[in-house]
TrEMBL record:
This is DUF6533 domain-containing protein. It comes from Suillus discolor. The chain crosses the membrane at residues 52-75. Residues 18-60 form the DUF6533 domain. The keyword Transmembrane helix applies. Keywords: Membrane, Transmembrane, Transmembrane helix.
Length: 85
């Protein structure tokens, strides 16, 4: 396999995984939204409510970013040869 074919294969793999991750995360959020409205949005607001919402919605933005561009950020094409023993 040439270098171009390997890169295209890796990109195709990354795209397929991205679709699966986005689908699963979106499905989980849709399933839990009714409970979230009942138990979080309709209660008295406290610091824990703000923390929960920050973690939940910051988490979805991070997971979507990693799903779309995770391969570009975290999967190097070549292993690091920096450490020599």
């Amino acid at each position: 396999m040439s270098g171009l074919e390997e890169s295209l294969y890796a990109l195709d793999w990354n795209n397929n995984i991205s679709v699966a991750i986005i689908t699963l995360v979106s499905y989980e959020y849709m399933l839990q939204f009714e409970k979230e409205v009942t138990f979080v949005w309709q209660r008295e607001w406290s610091i824990m409510t703000y923390m929960y919402l920050a973690v939940r919605y910051f988490g979805i933005s991070v997971s979507m970013t990693c799903a779309c561009w995770g391969g570009l950020f975290y999967i190097p094409e070549t292993p690091c040869e920096c450490i020599s023993y």
